[in-house]
Amino acid sequence: MNRIKLSREYIYEAYIVNEKPASQIAKECGVAMSTIYNRLREYDIPRSEPHTGMCGKHLSEEAKQKISAKLKGRKKGPFTLAHRRAISCALKGKKRGPLSEEHKQKLREAKQGFRHSEETKQKISKAQIGKIISKETRRKQSLARKGKKIGPHSLDRCRKISDGLRGRKLSISHKENISKALRGNKKCGWALGKHLTMEHRQKLSDGIRGKKHYNWQGGITKLTLSIRRSLKSREWKKAVLAQGNYQCEQCGQRGDVLHVDHYPKSFATIFHTNKIDSFEQAMSCDDFWDTSNGRVLCRECHENTETYKQPIQKHLIGA
Ligand SMILES: [Zn+2]
After folding, report:
1. pLDDT tens, 218-228?
2. What's the gap in Å between 273 CA and the centre of ligand 1?
3. Which listed residue, 113, 197, 205, 237, has the most CB atoms within 10 A of its CB?
């Protein structure tokens, strides 16, 4: 029956003579709009100019308010694909803005609490990969961020940033730029770029040791601890690390936390065989500072050694 109703004559009369829109004809015949368009093509009837809608139309304030009142509280979206396409077509080539402050405020309010779904986030992220941002845009972004405090980042975010930067090789010019930017930077302190002689460092260290320290409490620090923390010990560790190529002697791990161990003669053995009973004596004991008596271990491998954190006396009984 529809087929009869949709004869060329019928459609021609409705569409061309009576100027009915396709949607109305479709409704009257009880078919989809696309059917009408298909017939139009089939019968070679020219389509009328696309509907220009509200283009260029200026509504009175009253009309605007009426529309606004009618739409208030109505949930926008989710739009159908056709609807979204229509909106996109209508907005194409149209310049929005500059937006009024009021408009901006409204947009801001409407977006408050809005969260993209994980899927959308991934889509956005994918679309951004490999995109090169123009210098102009970068300058604008930089200006917008200026003075704004970033962070503190969540642990997850920190890890992501760290992963992203790992293994990055800076060009020489980049390094120079960083160096230039930091030069004269008061925040970095007076010592920036200064290399003190060993003698100077020793003097600085001696100047705040023991009685000379503002918080001296009568020498309660264990002797072994102060030996381990001394400048000489720190320098010895550095030398052993460099000698061991900054990697665990047993499993080959590089980076992370590396321990430096007295080996084959352990710290405890040296301590007791030399009968160390003062800091000065330890500093002048060559056995402690012999770089060939040292090894580099990662935390895990060190914990698995027999001598790890063994009380000095207990270890000696075994030795
Ligand atoms: Zn290891």
Report:
1. 888 888 899 99
2. 29
3. 237
CB 316 within 8 A of CB 272: yes
How far, in Å, is the centroid of ligand 1 from the Cα of 170? Answer: 29
Continuous segment of H or E residues that includes residue 259:
strand 258-261
> Model confidence over 61-104: pLDDT tens digits?
888 888 888 887 777 667 777 788 888 877 877 776 678 888 88
Cα–ligand 1 centroid distance for 225 (angstroms): 24
With both helix axes pointing from N to C terminus, report the angle between 231-243 and 198-207 in degrees, rounded to the nearest 10: 140
The pair of three-digit structure tokens given for residue 56, joined into one six-digit string: 């260029």
Domain ranges of the chain: 1-55, 221-316
Query: 260 CA to middle of ligand 1, Å?
Result: 12
How far apart are the CA of 298 and the centre of ligand 1, in A?
4
The structure's pTM equals 0.42
Helices (H), the chain: 2-5, 8-12, 22-29, 33-42, 61-71, 81-91, 101-111, 118-128, 135-145, 155-165, 172-182, 198-207, 223-229, 231-243, 267-273, 279-283, 299-303, 312-318
Phi and psi at 69, nearest 5°, equal -65, -40
Q: How far apart are CA 161 and CA 153, in angstroms?
A: 10
CA 299 to centroid of ligand 1, rounded, Å: 7
The CA 256 to ligand 1 mean position distance, Å, reads 11
Tell how far the Cα of 156 is from the centroid of ligand 1, in angstroms: 26
